[in-house]
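Good morning C.,

I know you're traveling, so I'll keep this short. The sequence:
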Amino acid sequence: MYLVWTKFFLLSVVIFFRTGNSEIQHDSACDRCQIKRESNTVKMICNETECTNPQIPMNITDFIYVRTVKTNSDIDLSFLCYKNFSKLHNIDLSENDLKLIPEGCFRRFSNLQTLNISRNFHLGLQNVYNACAGLNETKIEVISANHINNVDILFPVSRNLSIFLANTSLREFHFEFNGISVIKSGVIEAFPRSVELISISGNRIHFGPVFLELRKLVNLKTLDISFQCTTMQHLRKKARVGENSHNCSMLNETEDQILDILPPNLENLISTETGSGSYCFPKLSSNHSKLKYVDISGASYFAWIGPINFAGRSNQLETLILSNNKCSRISDNFFAKLTKLKYLDISYNVLGVFFPKVEGGKVFEGLESLTTLNISGNFLEKLPSDLLKYQYKLQELVLSHNDMELWTLQIKHMKELRSIDCSFNRFVSLPVSIQADLDAIAENHDVHFFINNNKVICTCENLQFISWMIETKVKFSTHSKTCTQSDGTLVDILVANQNLKIICAKTDWTYPLVLSSFGLILSCVVGIAFYKKRWTIAYHWYLFRLRHKGYSAIDGKNDDFEFDAFLSFAEEDRKFVDKIIEELENGSDEKYHLCLHHRDFTPGVPIERNIVSAVHLSRKTIVFMSSSYLKSTWCNYELRMSLTKEGEANRKVIVMIILDNIPRKHLPLEVLQYYRKNCYVERPEKEKDMTMFFKTLKTSLKT
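The tokens, ready to paste straight into the viewer:
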């Protein structure tokens, strides 16, 4: 009996180490490799040496190779290639610095479905072809080959790729960030008709006649052509200056048919930072499109003319993303035909001046199914009350990161409204009428309101709004339930409400009387003083103009450049900027005509108009980038206007001088994009380097 139990125990131990979570034994050539098995997945982890003959179970379904130490030695895949792993479904060889894949390596894996060879930066196109060879003998469905072509010589994608894949059941093909600029004729046409998703984002492709072959891919549902980093720049350089390149009435009529080259059953089109070469969003129309999701963000379409006209059965578009386009104008009928659209993102454009001019909600007329609207980051100060008069089904409204102080938008008709995000604005309170509208909507379902990072203040004048925030059914986020005291500190609205009720109750009628009397006396004193000194003031004004006879104040002229450069800087950096001014205006070799906000802006004219005029009438804009600069609202406005001019002028306008070492995570998107595409000048650390600095700066001003 004892022997029977002993044999049973030993047999159980053997079974345990051969199944479940166990580490598989391997030969002496793999002393620095670990082969771990979890269920039917094998994970092979290697350090400095490679395994030449590891003992991998033949019945595995998933294989993952992990190379923890990168060496100069090439990985030998002979332990995997041409073996009879008939049950293997998924192979992950990503991020291993692979440089060689033998041709037809995976052809014997008859049940292979997923192959990931991404982020092997020096693999190259030929080894992608080698990996695809023989896949027609498998059940391959997904191929990921991103970041594999970081080599000195870039070859065009040849027909070999599609020939190897032609008779497969491929559904997804990921070929991102490989520096590809040319796709040979016939490559797309020969792709398997089963493919449903193609992503070629992050390449350098110039779209041409070869893309007409996309019409052959009848089952393609998702196409990602984002971040073609040279396409938009190349197309816009082809437009000769003086040929109405910015005149939207001169749009090419063929752009109307651009959707007809897309696959007939395409549902999702992602084209971030990839434009058509025009500064105006073209007219798009189709009678057979099945598009439901379109992302054309970051394409620098300054004016949206359109319209987007999907007629009949083509009217299926539900999501449209047009953010980060620097747009400042939308035609009345641009969205008119998109009656099925549910999600619209037009955030981070320059629509703050445009929207107040819209009458009767015409710009959004037709968007009767819209449930989500994002217009954050648009320099909005005020919205027309009837801007969203047709959006009865709106559920989510995002107005964050703007400059709004007063709520003017009507929302009473939005019975399905569930969320409003007004964070990062300048709101002090909400009108009582809007409070009542929100209360009525909140009677039927939850309504969330985000008002954090605004200017809600703890004062007696604001006590009604603070009390409403506590009593209403509208749900405010945790960070929204605070107000700012006179000393700048934040306090919970519950505490503020209790304190204010006590303080404000002590205030009787004498306080407003004294305050009014003081204000009246002060107004009289100031008025008399101004009246007595009126001629003195007039004299000093004319003297100011005479002393600056060599300069003309900005008055809106736009026929020629009046200044060599406009200086955009924060007051905290004034000491260093003064050195630049002295050198450029009074230098021994040449003198520059500079525009300075404290000297050349026209008094009495709105700051926004002064800034636009300064940028428009100056050949260059010198930006002194620093931490203080990023904190300044007006500096950011100057930067945005300069970037807009640079885009429209099709030439370099900005000369960037870096004053601080600012962490990348603190930089806004447009500054990061500028760093990536342009050169800039750094402030010298030593005084002796200033001569070279000035020489470089002057050279930049001449180009």
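Safe travels,
E.
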